[in-house]
Amino acid sequence: MTCPVCSRAIPDDLLDCPLCLAGRSYRAVRAFQHAALREVLAGRARLIVRSVKQKRHLQMFGAMQSFCGVEFSPQHRESRIGWDPSELNRVCTRCRALVQEIAGEARCAG
Ligand SMILES: [Zn+2]
Ligand SMILES: [Zn+2]
Question: How far apart, in Å, are the Cα atoms of 37 and each of 77, 93, 99?
């Protein structure tokens, strides 16, 4: 079978093209972050921070994972911060860069 979207061959044991599937779920996750971040930027919601090995990471909305890819578990202490530069400066640099990039997209998409 060939993928109707990207024309790549789909392996026999799979129902869907793995590359397109990954792209779709990535876009769906990204769109969900846009919606949630617009609430944060408007001051109606807060960012979730979890500490892992003395480092503060930002949790992706709707996922037990940080923006930079660290897996969280409920034992990782959770706190909340607003969209405040002094607070954002205290979180992991990769999380901060990603959340700022996605927030920038959210502003444009809104
Ligand atoms: Zn495809
Ligand atoms: Zn991080």
Answer: 21, 18, 8
Q: What's residue 109's pLDDT?
A: 66
Cα 19 to middle of ligand 2, angstroms? 25
Answer whether residue 21 shows pLDDT above 60. Answer: yes
**22 CA → ligand 1 middle, Å:** 9
> What's the CA dihedral at 104, 82, 67, 85 to 10 degrees?
60
* 109 C-alpha to ligand 2 centroid (Å): 24
In the beta sheet, which residues pair with residue 51? 56
